[in-house]
Amino acid sequence: MLSRLLREHQAKQSERKELQEKRRREAIAAATCLTEALVDHLNVGVAQAYMNQRKLDHEVKTLQVQAAQFAKQTGQWIGMVENFNQALKEIGDVENWARSIELDMRTIATALEYVYKGQLQSAPS
């Protein structure tokens, strides 16, 4: 009787251990599935953030290149405007010089005309 009770006790304990081991494996499997699901969910967000970062880096590089090209073009435009301004100043200088020469020539022509008229009037007839 005692040996039968011992065997029954050992059999129940063995069943409990097996049941406990089965539940432990199920709990580990469930925890693993949960962990993988959480990691997968986080990885989707991380992957999206990574892709967004790559796109931003590409856009920044493109913008830097375009800004450099624009700065170069703007510098060329400024140079062209400065050259144009200089040409306008030179045209203004030439115009002033031409006016001055014209006034001098008129003065000389008037003086020569008076001299010529004076010579005609003083000449013996």
Automatic annotation (TrEMBL):
InterPro entries: BLOC1S1
One BP annotation, GO: anterograde synaptic vesicle transport
Name listed for the protein in its UniProt record: Biogenesis of lysosome-related organelles complex 1 subunit 1
Gene: BLOC1S1
Function according to Swiss-Prot or TrEMBL: Acts as a protein acetyltransferase. Negatively regulates aerobic respiration through mitochondrial protein lysine-acetylation. May counteract the action of the deacetylase SIRT3 by acetylating and regulating proteins of the mitochondrial respiratory chain including ATP5F1A and NDUFA9. Acts as a regulator of mTORC2 signaling in response to hypotoxic stress by mediating acetylation of RICTOR, thereby protecting RICTOR against ubiquitination and subsequent degradation by the proteasome.
Gene Ontology CC, one term: axon cytoplasm
Highest classification ranks of the organism: Eukaryota, Metazoa, Chordata, Craniata, Vertebrata
One matching Pfam family: GCN5L1
Family: Belongs to the BLOC1S1 family.
Catalyses which reaction(s): L-lysyl-[protein] + acetyl-CoA = N(6)-acetyl-L-lysyl-[protein] + CoA + H(+)
PANTHER family assigned: BIOGENESIS OF LYSOSOME-RELATED ORGANELLES COMPLEX 1 SUBUNIT 1, BLOC-1 COMPLEX SUBUNIT 1
GO MF entries: protein-lysine-acetyltransferase activity
